[in-house]
């Protein structure tokens, strides 16, 4: 994988966008950025707080403006939030401004990787597994719609997946 200027990672919660993104950026000698972290540092509050106070709509508004800016950063691997594909405007800029990689994880693996982590407000309800299932049914086609490349993350470590991406991509 060479000559990549902007790489955007999409996929569900627990797919490894943040974890693999850092390794991939190192391998590509690119910078790394994460839209969730950027939203938190701009707001001065964590995502759970933003959902509490401003609701999901408030978070999505912040996310849309951060995505519009960050998809213009050159020499960067950008890890996005799991719900980024819910807005048309985000899908449009991701698809048109860089190389989009969909990190795919099965529902079972999403459940395993997110269990007990309270930092994802959408999973703090009564039945996080049902929520992950519903979100995945809705979003999987949208991740695929904008992806230039899809990689399965279920059965390998983040390090191996990053290496595989470095070797596989055109
Ligand atoms: N391939 C993998 N194998 C095993 N564990 C993994 C793998 N990828 C990620 N993980 C683990 O799953 C958890 C979630 O990973 P990470 O935070 O990178 O996901 P994410 O896609 O950025 O999620 P979000 O959309 O919520 O930001 C972390 O504890 C990470 O170490
Ligand atoms: O899947 C989602 O909708 C989310 C995923 C996280 O990355 C955060 O962006 C936030 O918790 C919402
Ligand atoms: Mg992340």
TrEMBL record:
- Return the broad EC class: transferase
Organism's domain of life? Answer: Bacteria
> Which annotated residues bind substrate?
36, 60, 82, 139
Q: What is its main location?
A: cytoplasm
Matching entries from HAMAP family are given as: Shikimate_kinase
Q: How the protein assembles, per its UniProt entry?
A: Monomer.
The name of this protein is Shikimate kinase
Q: Which organism is it from?
A: Congregibacter litoralis KT71
